[in-house]
Design brief:
The protein is of the alpha+beta class. The protein is built from 25 helices and 15 strands. Helix content is about 50%, strand content about 10%. The strands form 6 sheets. A 5-stranded mixed sheet has the order 6-7-8-10-9. Strands 1-15 form a two-stranded parallel ribbon. A two-stranded antiparallel sheet has the order 2-3. Helix 11 packs antiparallel against helix 12, helix 17 packs across helix 21 and helix 18 packs across helix 20.
Length: about 625
Amino acid sequence: MSTARAWVNRVRRGFRTARDNAVTGLRARRSAGVLVAFALTVAGQAACDEQPPVRASRRAPAPASAQSPSAPAAPAPANVGPNTPIPGAELAARVEQFAPAQLTTDTAGLSPNERQVLDKLIEAARHLDPLFDRQAYAGNPALRETLRADKSPEGVARARYFDIMRGPWDRQDHHRPFAIDKRHPKGAGFYPEDLKADELEAWIAAHPGDAEALRSLYTVVAREGDALVARPYSQVYALWLEPSAAALEQAAAKTESASLRAFLRSRAKAFLTDDYYPSDKDWMDLDSRVEITIGPYETYEDQLMGLKASFEAFVTVSDPKASADLMRFKAKLPAMEQHLPIPENLKTVRGSESPIRVVDLVYSSGDARKSVQTIAFNLPNDERVRKEKGAKKVLLRNLIQTKFEKIMRPIGERVLDPSQLPQLSSEAFFQEVLFHELSHSLGPAFTTKDGEQVEVRVALGANYSALEEAKADVMGAYNVLYMIEQGEFPPALRDQLLVSYFAGLFRSVRFGVAEAHGKGAALQINYFLRHGGAIFDPGLARFHVALEPGAGLEAAISKLVRELCVLQAKGDAGSAKSMLGDLGRMSPPMEHVLSGLEGIPVDIRPVYPLAGETLTGEARPQ
């Protein structure tokens, strides 16, 4: 009997057991009705991989007090919605979901000059924290001071959670409020709180001359009487951008690296002019032991239009040897593009420089230091630069290693069929992270909207980020499999990659489906359950990854890459919204497994010794 057939029979036995237990009322962990739904779904998937998926539950996560202190939120009663305030007594438990972890590196190899430059870069990065607080929500600074004045245990927990979430809404619980009595504004701090997307679009339609400024990545939209106006970041945030630019200039004067000096000076100028194109190109050429990525990049905070960029900074120390070892993949990007399972007319040719850097993170700020800590990034986002130079892939090695050991491996041990646990691999996890970032540079970049060529980001609006993260995830796995075929990796990595990639999706989905990475991960899990890439066993409450060559998860990965790329190429925001509504949410099997991850941190809370922070007295963003 094949492994797959044995698993199907085991699942069917699980179905019969769940059915019998439902009848006799013996199932204690979950209601019998939900387990029968699980079993029916699994039995259907075992019989035919084209069966409909389990529909996502509409229930919101439950209060954290009902769980282990470090467990993520579990499903709650139906009357608890995303706008139901979180009781203050639960906040201490929610704080504990984020485990403090020191992130540092060996600086013995840095010269005294490089250490001085490093200190100045950290100084420049610090100024972005108060700036980002205002981008996340204009009322954050005043509210933070109010919360910090409350010295009761509940008040201290609320203030600590506020700092982790960078505001009064829980980012991992559908932006449920915990320190404010109002809904999270979709436009964050970039727009008037009462502004609706259709009002902005109507204004632009009536005043086309305002379109470029209002849609700019680098403006805040405000009301002046009955008018909507765009105010440049350089003016709105001058109080923080000017001293940050000064620190960058001081670091430029100290460094002996010509490429670092060029970037620091051009980025300092950009902070004062809002023209980031020249400095984005200089950042692509950056090659220094001590480095910084700093500026307005991602648009995740803008859930109204998906247009406005948030400020962030990563201060890093690079590993030249490890980076050089990975650069062999740079030349293979055109081949990866041509190998995509999409129509030829959708394949693009972008810049081929695409440096790959392996670094250790020594400080982060702004958008980079909110509840979810990114383990790698692929920048810049400006498609003009990507056409000319590609995009730089930066892997935060010490953060990747920390997350694998503290979060990824423990999750895999509770999510996967025990027989597949030996396939969990830190090497496979690292390569998936690398190829996720590479894949952001592949696939459609532009589409047509209203007869004009526009970036896919603009066409899809607020739906873009989640779909792009899902695309990069699944295309990353697809490209690692391709590299295995090409002999770049050993054949043994195949099963390790498939198992580790699937398990890693549960790490991301714990961030919550209100967040782009979590929603994108949910989309992938539900898609794979629908298309036979994995099977859920309700008896074990575990997932079995279908590893059959040319079938199972491997085939489902290829299908999903194609569907996502075609959707992006069409630029159809309605179809994007529909797909995310169907698949980008919690399904009962996912909820069931996630409720069993007690004791595993949702994420880490970074502590940076080189910036003067300690585990006993964490320096929080100001």
